[in-house]
Design a protein that fits this description.
single chain, about 400 residues, alpha/beta, TIM Barrel, 6-stranded parallel β-sheet, 16 helices, about 45% helix, globular, Metal_Hydrolase
């Protein structure tokens, strides 16, 4: 498929590339831990996004100048039952162990970060920075004290809900399209208090606007949107409007810009492709313990779907930058960051994996932002929010 000129591979000017390598660059939402448990897959080896559909590994992080970020323990939403909670709890704990094992297996290249001040020395040592986050608090069940276990493991940012309402909060995309609580549930308010007590940053991405209102009113510390966009550019429930953007900034919070194509602009439906992918993903879920051979078979099926039903309409790098530039216009460079949703659906034409990250730095320079501004956007702002959560926690 021939891409628009602006979305085709662009040469990043030398000055921008050099600046990008100097900066401390963090992505606040890496779904890459899901790759760690794939049979035969290694974070140490270089992979190709159009072959195995992964977007982050150590060689590509080095090429794209990504120093690290927040590696997510993501758990899909399941039934609100004790059995569902226990299954999710076990899955989330094991996913957290996978992140810790990645760090332990290669201390020369990865280092766990627990406080905001850890990022700079890790980057200076040439290692990748590994903060841990939790996407969807569903695995906590109804036991708020379980959050302490994840905090002890290293989790420093936590979201409340995902694609559907849960025991803590309303989702922005629940299939019912109706609120359950009108914001945080009573249990969700307890969870927020425990986050504040422990020094965990509250993440409002995926939660409803009313949840964000509750967080802004009740949290003792600034709120983060780890991977979101702007409703003014594309009116999607996963994005937030300018009033919420301003309210977020007024409380010291930050929006980290998302690169999930379906949230950036309207995408023309491709029913045949969607049907084929839905069937393939259902098969992947059924085969939870994939063998290398089975995974190779499923990847071949995915590549065949791409051949038979190519993506005729994709969001582009320019679409992503439109959201970022709008947020910068509304709240300025002190309240905007980057959380592209790599390995969780993120990536657009012209920015396919982490090797393309210098394009963001180049675009911001071209738009007139200073090195100091760009450093805030790439990591300064999210680290400031983390430091504020640390400062407010119970001693």
């Amino acid at each position: 498929m021939l891409l628009p000129l602006a979305a085709q591979a662009q040469e990043v000017p030398k000055a921008a590339a050099q600046l990008h390598q100097r900066l401390i660059t963090l992505d606040s939402h890496l779904d890459t831990p899901a790759s760690l448990d794939l049979p035969g897959w290694s974070i140490e080896e270089g992979h190709e996004v159009h072959s195995d559909y992964t977007q982050v590994d150590l060689p590509r992080m080095k090429k794209g100048g990504l120093d690290g970020g927040f590696w997510a323990i993501y758990t899909p939403q399941g039934p609100l039952t004790q059995e569902g909670f226990q299954k999710a709890r076990d899955f989330a704990l094991l996913r957290g162990v996978s992140i810790r094992e990645m760090v332990a297996a290669d201390p020369a290249n990865f280092q766990l970060a627990l406080e905001a001040k850890d990022a700079a020395p890790i980057a200076k040592a040439g290692k990748r920075i590994v903060y841990m986050s939790m996407e969807n608090a569903y695995p906590l069940g109804e036991d708020i004290s379980l959050l302490r276990t994840f905090h002890a493991m290293g989790v420093r940012v936590a979201g409340f809900a995902h694609f559907a309402h849960n025991q803590f909060a309303d989702s922005s995309t629940d299939p019912s399209k109706k609120p359950r609580y009108g914001g945080l549930s009573p249990l969700g308010k307890e969870l927020l208090r425990e986050m504040n007590r422990l020094g965990i940053v509250p993440d409002a991405s995926h939660s409803s606007d009313q949840v964000l209102d509750d967080l802004l009113a009740l949290s003792k510390t600034p709120v983060l949107l780890t991977h979101s966009g702007c409703k003014a550019i594309y009116d999607h429930p996963r994005n937030i409007d300018d009033d919420h953007l301003k309210a977020l900034a007024a409380k010291g919070g930050v929006i980290q810009m998302n690169a999930y194509g379906a949230y950036l602009r309207e995408i023309k439906p491709n029913p045949e492709r969607q049907k084929a992918l839905a069937a393939l993903f259902a098969q992947m879920r059924e085969d939870a313990k994939l063998s290398p051979e089975k995974r190779a078979e499923l990847l071949a099926k995915r590549q065949e779907i791409d051949r038979l039903y190519p993506e005729a309409d994709r969001a582009t790098f320019d679409d992503f930058m439109a959201h970022m530039m709008h947020a910068l216009k509304v709240v300025g460079p002190d309240h905007v960051g980057i959380g592209l949703d790599w390995d969780g659906g993120g990536g657009v034409a012209g920015m396919e994996d982490v090797r393309d990250l210098p394009k963001i730095t180049a675009a911001l320079l071209k738009a007139g932002y200073s090195e100091a501004d760009i450093q805030k956007i790439w990591s300064g702002n999210v680290l400031r929010v983390l430091a504020a959560a640390e400062a407010a926690k119970e001693k």
